[in-house]
Write a structure and sequence with these properties.
The protein is 38% helix and 16% strand. By secondary structure, the chain is of the alpha/beta class. The chain is globular. It starts with a strand and ends with a helix.
Length: 332
């Protein structure tokens, strides 16, 4: 019988390394671990029971008490951290987002609650942005012509960093995409005795259609869009420029957001830097898989793991995902 050949070498069969689950597991190049995962969580002021987010089945706006429980569950599952987003009462929103820098604002209270509950067993992260707290829904202070004023916004971010650090946060996540925000926040932390607080830079945050469900989750007041400060989905070079600037200004970690549509950017970041690289699997990515699974069009669990493995394979050291606790349990 004639010997069948494959490629340049007689008898080469890549499929030999795929023959059994144990073989595939042994040679897998990208592996998920609970310590790779961060749970984003929303805590809402003025509610007595969790409020389901319609566009994100299985995700809720927490009360302070249920947030504590979610934090404990994340620790028990082996999740690395939790990223907290505050949702204030509508009447507390104003043009300056003052609820965001109130020491007794909902996010600062939530940071204290989680820190009291789990201490250092979970890395407590906070969203450092004004959009949840402004009555116009933008990530910064508006000037007389209705444009986001970069430098006036930086002053507010410096205040936010200080009050979040005072509340006990381990990591601040500046997500507003203002020029110079990392340097200003780093200086504010260092000058107020918070040298150990880590800065996770939202370095490549694209102006994405996939944020829709998130805006329900935080009760956004936004009219219009954020295209003048978030990045253009068509561009790569500006993300690399942002990366260089954030590192120069003192970022300890960098992020790509969204994750799935921007795996090419994620891979470029991972190749270019020697700091941890995070990726945020955002609300729209979550909602698509949940909706398709609810219709019976895809296998939910397999699709979740495949999506996260793809993000990990592209170079993410840390993945923010709303499935963090569920997936961490399945991996243990």
């Amino acid at each position: 019988m004639a010997l069948t050949t494959y490629g340049s070498f007689p008898g080469t069969r890549p499929r030999r390394l795929r023959t059994t689950p144990a073989m595939r597991r042994m040679v897998a190049e990208a592996r998920l671990h609970p310590a790779d995962l961060i749970l984003p969580a929303f805590v809402r002021e003025g509610i007595t029971s969790p409020v389901p987010i319609e566009a994100m089945p299985g995700v809720v706006q927490h009360t302070r008490d249920t947030l504590r429980k979610a934090a404990v569950e994340a620790v028990e599952a082996g999740v690395a951290g939790i990223m907290l987003f505050g949702v204030p009462e509508d009447e507390k929103k104003d043009g300056a987002g003052t609820a965001g820098t109130d020491p007794d604002g909902i996010l600062q209270l939530a940071i204290r609650d989680v820190r009291d509950e789990v201490g250092d067993d979970l890395v407590i992260m906070s969203d450092l942005c004004l959009d949840e707290y402004t009555d116009h829904g933008h990530c910064g202070i508006l000037d007389s012509e209705g444009r986001v004023d970069n430098d006036a916004t930086l002053e507010r971010y410096a205040e936010m960093a200080q009050v979040q650090a005072d509340a006990g946060v381990h990591v601040v996540g500046p997500s507003g995409m203002m020029d110079g925000q990392i340097g200003v926040i780093r200086d504010a932390l260092d000058q107020t005795g918070h040298e150990d607080v880590t800065v996770l830079a939202y370095t490549a945050k694209y102006s994405s259609a996939f944020y829709g469900p998130f805006r329900e989750a935080v009760g956004s007041s936004l009219k219009g869009d954020r295209k003048t400060y978030q990045q253009d989905p068509a561009n790569t070079r500006e993300s690399l420029r942002e990366l260089a600037l954030d590192l120069q200004e003192g970022a300890d970690m960098v992020m790509v957001k969204p994750a799935g549509p921007y795996l090419d950017i994620l891979a470029k970041f991972a190749d270019a830097v020697d700091v941890p690289v995070a990726a945020y699997q955002i609300s729209g990515e979550y909602a698509m898989i949940e909706a398709a699974a609810e219709k019976g069009w895809i296998d939910r669990e397999k699709a979740i793991l495949e999506s996260l493995t793809g993000i990990r394979r592209a170079g993410a050291d840390v993945i923010l995902t709303y499935w963090a606790t569920e997936v961490a349990r399945s991996l243990r």
